[in-house]
Amino acid sequence: MPVERKGGLAGSSTPDRRLVPDGSADIERAGSGAGQIAGGCGDALVSFTKHQLVELAVHHAPKLRLPRTFAGFLVDSDTLADLAYAVGLVHANGVFDVAGRHPAEVVAEALRRIDGPSTNPFSAYRVAETIGRFGSFDRCNPVLEKLTDVQLDNLDAACDASSWHALLDEVLPRNYAVVLARVLVAREALGLSVDPQLLSDVLGRAQHLFESAEVVGFVDDSNDAEGRFDIYSADLHLFAEPLAPEIGSVWQDGLRSVISLVEKVGSSNGAAFCWGRSTGVLSVCMTVELGALALALDLTNDRDLWWARIVEATASLSGWFSSGVTTAHKHRSPYGYRGPARRLQLTLDVLGKTAASALVLQPLGNRERHSLSESWSDRDGVVDELIPFRRDGRAGVWAYASSKLAFALPFTGTVRTDYLPAPQRPGLFEVPVDSELATGVPVVWHGGARYASAGLPSSVEHTADGELIARWDGEAFRATSSDSVFIGSRVARFGVAGRELSVDEELSFDSVPQAVGIQFAEVAGRSFHVGVKTPVDVTCDSIDVGGI
Questions:
Q1: Are 122 and 106 in contact, with CB atoms under 8 Å apart?
Q2: CB count, 10 Å around CB of 120?
Q3: pTM
Q4: How far apart are CA 245 and CA 513, in angstroms?
Q5: Hey, is 133 helix, strand or coil?
Q6: Beta-carbon neighbour count of residue 464 at 10 Å?
Q7: Beta-carbon contacts of residue 233 (< 8 Å; ≥ 6 apart)
Q8: How far apart are CA 532 and CA 50, in angstroms?
């Protein structure tokens, strides 16, 4: 039963201009880029990080002594490790007073409260690297000098993730190999015992992970090769930066590809990625992190572009905070695993990223102080490119950006709504985060289940006249709440004209569905103009779902 839909979808105003969280009008003005001193980005990031730590101390954690619980959840070792990591990096940036205390004092107190044996690898490398910023693993180190033997043994355990190695093959995501390698390298630098065979194994796994990418730089983050490419495919390169000498040139080659990708898909609210997980404040941080490395390692052909992006991302960061704590849950919330229980940890995770980026940018600012005459998003020219993530071309992203319309349309292998092959752009083409509610793609209902057009297409073609054609054959529709499929095919032809995105849909099914529909999520105060043409009767409606 073929069903054909033709029509257009257009934004009601100039797209994607300075879209930042509510209550940040001052940031909008400051973030335009005009007159900003790019070389001062490092200083600005240090000031931002220190200010948020002081705000946290004033409102929630006097003298930066974290409470036992926060907003009804236990403050665990992960959060304490992130506090030590962030404050240690602030000190490395030349700050000697945070909330009325010397950073070494704050770090020492946080480290004493960590439960070593239960520390996970992501926290373990931060503990080890933080201790290393102050010296070796002995009592000459100012953050360890007052510890008892028992407390030192506890921190030794906190810097050791060896027990996680046995879980690499069957339990842990593949990126854990990089994290474990970073733990062991930092542990070895402290002078602590490291099994050389174990270190060699995890470094080999890390190198293999980067070499396994079919297209340099784009590592499939899934364990089953389903084609999950998102912010964490890029984040692997940030995790692996301290390991670059051991991994070899494949790391820098991959990082260069990631930087080129973000140049094309980055959003003007500061986010590096707009699809998949962590597309809010963590994605803004990634713009700063990648930009710092792009400039420091000379991995970009457009340094002015990256200075401008760092300026705008830095300017938008304070809109994600209130009283020293992130408000990501009010805007583009992170996934559930970073929900309310980890709000304080996420706060300190962000501050560690901003302080680490400042450390990279500080020396560059002294050499490259210049004013930016325009925002990167005000630049002329059109991006219209299909960027492949695999050799077969089935996984990738269509990056489109002009002065009138901008979006990224990803082709990945997962069913969650923020991975679907639909246009995505913060503040314009929004999607429900970490949800089963499919938007922007055809959806069919059959047998009481809901099936969305999802998964890797059979083929994707970008024509010479700018049309993008994607085909799904056979299992084109997947259930949003189970592993079942609805047999059918889909051919979608996308085109852009000015501010209008149009798509010609041809859908066919082996059995007649109960209903076929497509829905879009509108941003409050910014409605779409939707036109639909079909050979059958259709119902079009706009429904208020605010507060749900």
A1: no
A2: 16
A3: 0.91
A4: 56
A5: helix
A6: 5
A7: 218, 219, 220, 221, 258, 389
A8: 52
The secondary structure of 26-39 as a DSSP string is: HHHHHTT-TTEEGG
61 vs 323: CA distance, rounded Å = 11
pLDDT digit string, tens, across residues 216-240: 999 998 878 888 899 999 999 999 9
pLDDT for residue 415: 85
The answer to whether 289 and 353 are in contact (CB under 8 A) is: yes
Give the strand pairing for 36-37 and 371-372. antiparallel
Dihedral of the CA atoms 86, 143, 191, 249 (nearest 10)? 20
Question: What residues pair up with 73 in beta bridges, in sequence order?
Answer: 70
- The alpha-carbon radius of gyration of the chain (Å, integer) is 24
Instruction: Write down the mean pLDDT value for the chain.
Output: 89
DSSP 391-457: TTSSSEEEEEE-SS-EEEEEE-S--SGGGSSS-BBTTTBB--TT-S---SS-EEEETTEEEEE-S--
Q: Give the single-character DSSP code of 118.
A: G
- Could you tell me the two tokens for 49? 């990080």
Task: Collapse the DSSP code of 466 into the 3-class scheme (helix H, G, I; strand E, B; otherwise coil) and give the result.
Answer: coil
- Phi-psi label, residue 63: left if phi above 0, alpha if psi -120 to 50, beta otherwise: left
476 Rama class: left (phi>0) / alpha (psi -120 to 50) / beta: alpha
Q: What is the pLDDT of residue 546?
A: 78
pLDDT (tens digit per residue) in 198-220: 999 999 999 999 999 999 999 99
**Cβ burial, residue 189 (10 Å; 0-12/13-18/19+):** middle
Q: Which of 321, 275, 344, 289 is nearest to 60 (CA)?
A: 344
For 80, 96, 295, 488, the CA distances from 161, given in Å and listed in that order, are 17, 31, 32, 47
Q: From CA 265, how far away is CA 274, in angstroms rounded? A: 8
Residue 257 near residue 217, CB atoms below 8 Å: yes
pLDDT for residue 22: 31
Q: From the CB of residue 318, how many other CB atoms can be counted at a distance below 10 Å? A: 19
407 neighbors 386 (Cβ within 8 angstroms): no
Digit-coded pLDDT (tens) for 465-497 = 889 999 999 889 999 888 899 999 999 999 999
10-residue mean pLDDT profile of the chain (548 residues): values are 40 32 30 51 95 98 97 96 98 97 98 97 98 97 96 97 92 92 97 97 95 94 85 94 95 97 93 93 96 96 92 94 93 78 96 98 76 60 92 96 94 90 93 88 94 95 95 92 92 96 95 94 88 89 84
Residue 34 has which token pair?
């005009």
What tokens appear for 97 in the block? 């007073």
